[in-house]
Fold these 4 entries.
Entry 1:
Amino acid sequence: MKHLLGTEDLSRSDALRILDTADEFSAVANRQVPKLPTLRGVTMANLFFEDSTRTRLSFEAAAKRLSADVMTFGASGSSVSKGESLKDTAQTLSAMGADIIVLRHFSSGAAHRLAHSGWVDAHIVNAGDGMHEHPTQALLDAATMRQVAHKEPRGEDLSGLSVVIVGDIAHSRVARSNVFLFETLGAKVTVVGPPEFLPPGVEAWPVSVTSDFDEALGSKPDAVMMLRVQHERRSEAVAWSAREYIRDYSLTSKRAQLLPIDCVVMHPGPMNRGVEIASEVADSPRSVILDQVRNGVSVRMAVLFEVWGDGS
Ligand code: CP
């Protein structure tokens, strides 16, 4: 594939190939010199118009492990403050030799626009566009589910697994990408949130929907994924009470006790401890939050390898 823009159109075979490649790349981290020559001579540019810790740094680590050169752009401190557009910024990075552009942007559809506008020839990887998609997060979540949630023998995909995704579904690109990918890979997904945090048209998604978190926990899921409230994307017109939200939707220690013993707890980060997840749960043995971060590097190595390998 030339670009990775979302999971909605990602086929099962493409997704499994990326996950299998990521499994192979994960072994590199344990080498004395954790590096492969695979992308030597290739330049990856991180083009981030929104803040990031995990995604930006793990793309950087992934590119370096594959011996690519890395350019990093953050909107803050750049000429965006002088009115420079996405087009001009991307063309500037391209003129400096960017072969792969990893784009995070606050506008839904920005990655599609950059990939299909003809502004640049580079391969485009969507690192999160507005409320739309965050495909590499979904792939690393699927990699983590495949690793830790499956009972032996480990399955090729996520068939037979069930996951409950809880929180601000309406404003979450992670939720959207995960729903599409998990469905493609055969998992059963339930989304949970207060009615005002469920997106219009959610009934057409391939998921079960409920506003009753305790009922969803009673369904004995294999994984529970907590999401933070996306205050930066929320309209102030939608009333929100932290106290009521914590009462009804926080994964507290008490609620975690209702989960099956082998059910794992996930969170894409950044976490708001004490809001959507209690600290004791985030730090408990059932938490795989740092496994998700770790898998992010190998999954992003696999994605860079995948897009670059497409006819380049
Ligand atoms: N999960 C995620 O996208 O985290 P960052 O915003 O820190 O990249």
Entry 2:
Amino acid sequence: MRCHRCRAPANVEIRRSRTAYCARCYPDWFRFQVQERIDHERMFRRDQRVLVAVSGGKDSLALWHTLVKLGYRADGMYIRLGIADYSRRSQQKSEAFAEKHGQVLHQVDLEGDYGFGVPDLLDTRSGKPCAACGTVKRYHFNKVAADLGYDVVATGHNLDDEAATLFGNVMHWNTDYLGRQGSVLPSTHAKLVRKVKPLYRLAERETAAYAIIERIDYILEECPMARGAKSLAYKDMLNALEEEQPGAKYRFLVGFLKEGRAAVRTGGFDQASDLRECTRCGQPTTGELCAYCRMADRGRAKAAARAARYGPRPAPAEDD
Ligand code: Q46
Ligand code: ZN
């Protein structure tokens, strides 16, 4: 195949649109797609400050790189989740990216600042901490953005992530979540910062191609807690479908957002009128104590019990 733009031999094929690009033209195509979504969905303006939720993986670093290249005022934020070697290596990748590109990276250290790590939040039924980890991330990204005056939080969710989430929500008929799934989550309270997903129409392999061509050094391994996650099974299934029907994931997600979402939209529970401030941390919540503060209490109790039994966690090694 030849590059759609310059006719040189192509390196990256976009099967859903039956086009391909060479390594020189591809990054421009990718950035154009992101810019087009930001503008079309009015995600943010050039005079606004963006906080990019950074994990050290390809999607979040590709997003940060793209926004910086497009000239946005985008700083990064990384949360040290305390997931052993995975956290240590992903932190290094995030810090190295910030340094190489001369960008600001804010950090929250869960164990150091809050007294627990994500492994202390295992769900007894699933044996996984992922639901709690999601709460931790949403809470801290929002809090730092609100405290430091950012206008918007941008996450690196791609087409594969969003299609898998949609599939999971359909499988379980989570109509509340279905009604709220989208690329822009508007602010409904002075302390809730707007959330956007500028990569949501770009496939995982397209983000990976961008990261590789732009020589972004990202963490290759998945979080060890992801093993056996339902979302991975959904992704495999959607990938198998995509092989047979190029564009299936895109049509599933974008079709839903255009046609299906309105039909399942529910009253929602993030309305400003339902929200008050957590009596401990001041963040918006529907109850007295927010979900994060309740969860953090459990995490700290677990961490204290663990330390009493086995002693504090050993300091990480200083290699690589
Ligand atoms: S980081 Fe957290 Fe993920 Fe790891 S513990 Fe689960 S949710 S898998 S994106
Ligand atoms: Zn709270």
Entry 3:
Amino acid sequence: MGQSPLVLTGICGSPGLALGRAYLMDRRKVRTPRNRLEESQVEAELLRFREALERSDAQLVDVKARISTGDAHDHALILEAHRLMLQDPMFVDEVRKLVARDRVNAEWAVRRVVRKLRHMFDNVQDEYFRERKSDLDFVADRVVRNLVGEAVDEEVEVPEGAIIVAHDLSPADTAVLLKTGRVVGFVTDLGGQTSHTAIVARARETPAVVGAVRASEQVKPGDLLALDGTGGTVLVNPPEAALATFRETMAARAAEERALLQTRDLQATSLDGFRVVLKGNMEFLEEIPSLLAHGAEGIGLFRTEFMFLDREAPPNEEEQFEAYKAVLEAMGGRPVTIRTLDLGGDKVPGGVKRSEREHNPAMGLRAIRYCLAHRDIFRTQLRALLRASIYGSLRIMFPLVSGLSELREARSELEACRSELGREGVRMGGRIPVGVMVETPSAAWIADRLAQEADFFSVGTNDLIQYSIAIDRQNQDVAYLYKPLHLSVLRSLRHICQAAKQAGIPVAMCGEMAGEPAYTLLLLAMGFDELSMAAGQIAGVKQFLRRVSRADAVGLLDEAMQFSTAEEIERFVNAELQRRFA
Ligand code: PEP
Ligand code: MG
């Protein structure tokens, strides 16, 4: 404190304000080499392992000494538990045994033993023991880093009220961190507005600034950060006056938020009676209470692949069935759209090795392509969905469809699973609407044909924009080109809506564009029947919709689409919004 404040600028990952202490993390996974040893090398390898254990222990002692004088003394006990693991025979002796017996290097042996122990923990009923898996990973990571000679970050359990600062975070890391309930914000060097880390943060109403370039180098552990997720800025160690203003703004925003929630039970109907259904996007069951509290009329997108991240083996049919059943029951008869797995891209299942990763994952074996290439995984999910269908109002949709053949293929898998379950005497719901996520330019262009065979559309603008403008949605260097109001995007959206209307099927939007009030008028004009978004966005969009008329919106859209550049369209739309709602 005291020095002139540093201001970091990035991109809005998740809106809102947060004040907290920086907690720096390096979550880039350490590489684990695999070597075979000669008999004569075994002794030296065991010594190397012992030294890595000793170094790990010394580091933990050091971290403990430092935190016990600072804010985080509560975590000393956890560090002590980590130290005990470094002496535990189940870990140490097993690694030694593998090195000696199988003549493998110590890093590899550590990973193998940990995999076995994780598996044992998985099968233990006691939740406490199952929770210990992450401790095991922390300890193993530290030992492996010491073995390969990589720097070890002083990783302790995240303290209460922390703002995580990292070079990059995987969606799984973000989710795990949020589960601790101790994180109030995120700042990452990498990432764009619709990267999945940002989406997870938004779902949990946790402010985040992404794409803040060198934040993880500029911020020091324990720095006080005033994070403005909406504006994409972070004040580092703000002076007293700035801090006081920030606190006042936080209090004012909280009051606004409370006021907006008063509209929870009102319908989103325009002044001239056009009704739009507002639903929620979700990744984890824990998000449902918040979605309901914000007035979600259903689930418009359940990103089921999040259940597959951060674990070695995929969830089996039973586990998935229980999850889908729980969502349907929790929504009490409100419609629930469950998307089949969108694995691939930046959502890599836990068991996939780095060497197996694709060169260009966004264009690779992702989503419906992944499922059609891994039929066993796909069928397991479809069976679980069909079994759960009796517990509520289920719709199924397929992600990243690029052509009609994929839709037909996916539908026929669904029908095959239905017949199979029928033969097994399993009860299932009646006709389940099957939809297509329109998120590739290819699907947008053949929307008229897809509409003949799909029961509904849901537009995934995060991907549609990514693929239309050819910008990696994770890459902050091209984030400036991410323009929902690009004429190509507007034309695609209008075309998709027209195709849906002509075929008489409902059309929804579940990409991030749906939750941004600045676009609501245009989406109303195009005729979207449903918008699905994060909990924190529902009230704002609803308030907006209730204050405008569709007739007015249609005129505005026509005029906006006369312009040619995204900047011109943005300027025009913003000016018109200002004029109406100043
Ligand atoms: C989208 O692409 O807009 C979408 C909703 O799917 P995801 O963000 O999970 O790719
Ligand atoms: Mg998508």
Entry 4:
Amino acid sequence: MDIHGEKILILDFGSQYTQLIARRVREAKVYSEIFPYNFSIEKIKKFRPKGIILSGSPASVYDKKALIVNKEVFGLGIPVLGICYGMQLMTHLLGGVVAKAQKREYGRAELHIDKSIDLFHGYKNWISGEGQRHGATTVWMSHGDRIEDMPSGFTPIAHTDNSPIAAMANIYKGLYGLQFHPEVVHTPYGRNILENFVYRICGCSPTWTMKAFVDYSVGHIKEVVGKEKVICALSGGVDSSVTAALVNRAIGKQLTCVFVNNGLLRKNEAKSVLDTLKRGMDLNIKYVDAEARFLKKLKAVIEPEKKRKLIGREFIAVFEDSAKKIGKIDFLAQGTLYPDVIESKSFKGPSAIIKSHHNVGGLPTRMTFKLIEPLRELFKDEVRVLGKELGLSDEILWRQPFPGPGLAIRVLGEITDERLNILREADAIVLDEIRKAGLYREIWQSFAVLLPIKTVGVMGDERTYENVIALRAVYSLDGMTADWAKLPYDLLGTISNRIINEVKGVNRVVYDISSKPPSTIEWE
Ligand code: XMP
């Protein structure tokens, strides 16, 4: 089966929701990809989409620097759905009129459907569904401009109080516009609208499933690799674990996974990751104990960026040594995900730059491996479904992210065995209690940080002068922005008591209540 056979192309005009559109379409089991708004007509034709979606945008079609799509996109005989700015652009380019709305419309609105057409198939259920009122269905609006006059051939198909033309269609040409955002959860029946578009209007069938993806990828990897050898750096994180499992499914023992213990892992982490990964999967893992090597390099290093660079370089050296021992290797398998791919070829906002210093595991060009990146088409949630399909445990699939430099950037200041051990013990208590409270999955990251100061305390009749542990727990979707987690006081109390009672050398625990920005998630 060709899982990429029936696909939707999304043109990105810079909306914060563009990736959500792609995810919703994929949740309908139809493959979708995002391209920049100025993707050429030739390339669009070559991609052979069954439908095109134009995203929203922070811009206005009248801005001097408005992002404009080639008008030919509306004449390819391929259905087009314009969302918000996408609808305004469609209007503007096809001869209609867009104007500033009297009032910027932001938030929930009641949508009244005026024409029962394919895009709204099944809408009678939406207006009688839970929370829906007066024969209307709730939608999410976020726009400053609105359609004053539609291009010829279009009919209004829905309205809200503020937008007389909240949706429009030219069904003969297969062109549709929505002023609201069907891709966000605040539009409860948005998913149905997008499904109607891809199934009923574009004629796609639901072929994009993770089971089909596994079959496809296994065949593809086998073909590309042939009889050669593949190496993969396994960290125990979701992406590298799923990559390894998938490549292993395709070529078995031709794959060697290298797990480097850099001495900067959490308590019992190396053992538990390896045990979990080996369970139920005959994975060829080479465990490299490089603890002493890393700690020697990090001796007396205090500056965070220097720590990062040293660790990055040492990792490459260790990895190279291991690769040499395996013999001739042609391929390197990496867990690059779709958002990284889009980020590198689409708009580069400031966020892309902030992230760059995190790629400490990047391999130097002198290592002339050919790359296999079997997850390059997938979003994180799809990677988890894929991992499940491959039989990986929830323990691996739902692990909180852990930075490449590990505890080195959580032991603030100098890294010694003793300080690492204090942090490990405290950190293990944090995770244990967060898990017991049932918060592990919903919290993006939760951990302990060892501060480079000592404070005074009293124990029995004696004054103590010991270490301070800071607790950090944040909610986040992607690590780019984060909110500090409002953990229950009781939970904070339990964690603090346990750390002070159980971890020798700590007499004070504080809680970090800063969000990102302006703070960051890590302390170094
Ligand atoms: P910050 O601290 O910048 O972190 O808010 C955002 C996310 O990135 C992780 N992080 C790193 N990951 N190498 C990594 O692989 C690094 O040097 C690094 N620094 C931060 C951090 O844990 C969070 O998930």
